[in-house]
Amino acid sequence: MTTTKWSIDPAHSEIGFKVKHMMFTNVSGNFEKFDASIETDGDNFETAQFEFTGDIDSISTGNKDRDSHLLSADFFDASQFPKISFKSTSFKKLNEGEYKLAGDLTLHGVTKPVTLDVEFGGLAKDPWGNTKTGLSISGKINRKDWGLNWNSALETGGVLVGEEVKLQIELQFIKQ
Q1: What are the φ/ψ torsions at residue 23 (nearest 5 degrees)?
Q2: Secondary structure of 80-141 as H, E, C letters
Q3: Which of 85, 83, 121, 82 is nearest to 103 (CA)?
């Protein structure tokens, strides 16, 4: 088989996350600058190899003060660790359109294995003749596993920032 390369369509993709704030609401954010690619055997995604990088300084939660705090040494320490990256180790089909994506996530200078749920949208041609594919990826990580430990105790019990981070990723790729 021939190797097929797929490039990210950034206009139709987003890398999002949610974290509990004060134990009862979610704060959402996303990375505004990122790149991703896939290599497959032909159009067979069951052997797909995924790679992703994101610029930490492009993090956006809709609040400049919070974003500045996230970039500081309390959290991501963007000056020392400017990138987040992911490289797949496997992509396994569970059912029609459902997969498990496993790989190594590097964040804050720490690399750990993660497994994510993927909804594979199939292949389609856009109105300009490009073959595209779409993936909806979700999962959870514990930010403390990557050394993102800052927190503040609440007077009423609990903590200001939750440990669990929910990932919500929508990716569209163009066949090269």
Answers
A1: 75, 0
A2: CCCEEEEEEEEEEEEECCEEEEEEEEEECCEEEEEEEEEEEEEEEECCCCCEEEEEEEEEEE
A3: 85
What pLDDT is recorded for position 46? Answer: 86
How many helices and strands, by DSSP H and E, does the chain display? 1, 11
CB atoms within 10 A of CB 136: 14
CB 105 within 8 A of CB 112: yes
Residue 89 has pLDDT above 90, yes or no: yes
- 131-146 confidence digits (pLDDT tens): 999 999 999 999 999 9
Sequence-distant (6+) residues with CB within 8 A of 39 are: 3, 4, 5, 6, 48, 49
pLDDT tens readout for residues 6-26: 999 999 999 999 988 878 889
Measuring CA to CA, which residue among 151, 144, 134, 147 is closest to residue 165?
Answer: 144
